[in-house]
Amino acid sequence: MRSHYLSQLDTADKLSAEPWPEDATLYQPYEAEQILLPENASCLAVKAYLKMCNLPFGIRSCANAEHMSPGGRMTKLPFIRAGAFIFAEFEPIVNFVEQKELAIGSWQDEDEKADMRTYVSLVENIFTMAELYISFKNERVYKEVTAPRNGVVFPWPLNHMQNYGKRRNALRLLKVYQWNDLDIDSVIDKVAKCCETLEYKLKESPETPFFYGDQPCELDAIAFGHLFSILTTTLPNMALAQTVQKFKDLVEFCRFVDEKYFQTRCLPN
């Protein structure tokens, strides 16, 4: 036990001692033809966070990014290679940046950080589950979008095997989080309530652009990643996007973050 603890301390010292590598690379599936809604949201959240931290990074798209990932709690994506270290998904990557004392949100006190991380957990859990649900439980979305995109980089019959395994894993995750037996109305209700909570938090600082004032924190990054991905992804069933669109302050928040850090201008006025 003591040796394991010392090993953790040694790893933490190494993380904090090394500067941010100029060749840090974020790995993800191909955006145009392969990436799925839950993966896109997670990847965009990490990109937003790194941009908010003003940290340089490259992006490498590859067909087998998910299988290259060291693993994760939900999507396994994206993963980042920074020097000798590899981390996957939003929270581990954020923790890695914080170890180096390069993170946004360092101005927050401990109580505010604890409050903020409660919102981060809510956003990640609700939106990721909703994105998985619409992508893998809705038959039309699965047949017309999810399966063709997920299998596009694999030859027959490997594409069918890949789709079977991917859907099985997604449904297993939905079952673990008790979303598997929900109907679409219940899913939309959960998303709407999460949006209400986020909009209420945003309105607590009406004169500032971010959730906690004039400066961004990790909540801004993860909320943007999920909200913007939902708003800009075209699916046969647009129930998620239509729900988010009802919350005008959140839409304006997405437009502001996009303009400041990405300049895609994908959201209509």
Characterization of this structure:
The chain is mainly alpha-helical and 269 residues long. The chain has 11 helices and 4 strands. The protein has 2 domains: 1-99, Glutaredoxin; 110-262, Glutathione S-transferase Yfyf (Class Pi), Chain A, domain 2, CATH 1.20.1050.10. Strands 2-1-3-4 form a 4-stranded mixed beta sheet, covered by helices on one side. A hairpin with a 2-residue loop joins strand 3 and strand 4 (85-88). Helix 9 (218-232) packs across helix 10 (239-245) and helix 9 crosses helix 11. The chain starts with a helix and ends in an 8-residue tail after the last helix. 36% of the residues are buried. Mean pLDDT is 92; it is low at 1-10. It is found in: Mitochondrion outer membrane. One of its GO terms (cellular component) is SAM complex.
Record keyword descriptors for this entry:
membrane; globular; protein transport; Sam37/metaxin_N; 4-stranded mixed beta sheet; Glutaredoxin; 2 domains; 11 helices; mitochondrion; Glutathione S-transferase Yfyf (Class Pi), Chain A, domain 2; 269 residues; mainly alpha; Metaxin-2 isoform X1
CATH top level of the largest domain is Mainly Alpha
Instruction: Please compute the radius of gyration using only Cα atoms.
Output: 19 Å
Query: How many domain regions?
Result: 2
Q: Beta-strand level of the residues, as a percent range? A: 5-15%
Predict the CATH topology of the largest domain: Glutathione S-transferase Yfyf (Class Pi), Chain A, domain 2
Arithmetic mean of pLDDT: 92
- Any low-confidence stretches, pLDDT <50, length ≥5? 1-10
Structural class: mainly alpha
Oligomer: single chain
